[in-house]
Design brief:
Number of helices: 14
Distance between the termini: 19 Å
Strand order of the largest sheet: 2-1-8-7-6
Structural class: alpha+beta
Shape: globular
Order of helices and strands: HHEEEHHHHEHHHEHHHHEEEH
């Protein structure tokens, strides 16, 4: 496969859609990002990397971090996390309080904000430092030891994080958090503030294309666990647009309101696309279109 030729064609195809949508407004530090940016990278299962456009420009990973948090908890703690969080699509916005009350403080899945807070809480209990554990893992898998948190983004999220605080306190009232709410929120905000490029994220996510094998050849997840992370990404990774994403793209994916999306083709490669303009459900407009066109050109999907 000539990845460069495919990416060049994808970039040309989506160019009219770059800049459509709206950058995330509810986090002030993200509202300043240039909506005209577009980058895309493909990391094959052997570690090769190819990119186009702004593929080496760092951006805020935001909720893409949730996929890595889930993988790290499964690697250290096995299936126990599923006693505290479900695996079903939410059908509601990613920061909704409604379902938590109906379901007694058990989040519908690990990729809505409430579910990610539970995963962060468990990772912190397992490691003593959830955010640094994730950063160290991402540095190792991407091969980029310069990856860092963005303090301005973390502070911006913390200063405008009342909804996340409400989610956390509500779950704590049901006994579904082990650590103090401020601690969980702090580590959650720091994880979301990590800055990575398409190159970094595509490389960091290739353990999901390699059925659980890390960049150094060691095993992070069993094949079964890797399959399950990919399955939850497919059904829940793009919030209440997961059905449309599966219909258009046909791959496990995880989006973030920073405009990034990672997608996995098991056994082949991992993709990352970035374009900050978001649709009403918080997913990159040009990013979804790019992944749709990539799978159309290559014929690669899980279906």
């Amino acid at each position: 496969m000539d990845y460069q030729a495919v990416l060049d064609e994808v970039a040309a195809y989506v160019k009219p859609q770059v800049g459509r949508g709206q950058v995330a407004q509810y986090i002030p530090a993200l509202a300043e990002v240039d909506a005209q940016r577009f980058g895309m990278a493909v990391a094959d299962a052997d570690g090769g990397i190819t990119g186009v456009g702004d593929w080496e420009v760092p951006f805020s990973v935001q909720s893409i971090s949730k996929a890595f948090g889930l993988a790290l908890v499964l690697a250290q703690d096995g299936e126990r996390i599923w006693r505290r969080v479900g695996r079903e699509p939410s059908g509601n916005p990613f920061n909704s309080l409604v379902q938590l009350e109906y379901e007694n403080g058990i989040p519908r899945n690990p990729f809505i904000n409430a579910g990610a807070l539970v995963v962060t809480d468990r990772l912190h209990s397992l490691t003593g430092d959830a955010s640094t554990t994730m950063l160290d893992f991402l540095r190792a898998e991407s091969g980029n030891d310069r990856l860092a948190f963005d303090p301005a983004v973390a502070a911006s999220e913390s200063g405008h994080g009342d909804r996340n605080a409400a989610l956390a306190h509500f779950m704590a009232s049901y006994g579904n958090l082990d650590n103090p709410v401020p601690t969980v929120l702090e580590h959650y905000f720091w994880q979301c503030s990590i800055e990575m490029s398409c190159r970094d994220l595509a490389l960091a996510g290739t353990f999901l294309a390699r059925h659980g094998l890390r960049a150094d050849g060691s095993r992070l997840l069993s094949r079964r666990e890797a399959k399950r992370v990919n399955a939850v990404m497919l059904t829940c990774g793009t919030y209440d647009a997961a059905g449309d994403f599966a219909y258009r793209v046909g791959l496990p994916g995880k989006s973030g309101v920073g405009g990034g999306i990672i997608a996995v083709i098991p056994g082949r490669c991992t993709l990352c696309v970035w374009s900050p303009g978001l649709d009403a459900r918080g997913n990159s407009v040009a990013g979804v279109a790019a992944l749709d066109h990539f799978t159309t050109l290559t014929g690669w999907s899980v279906f």
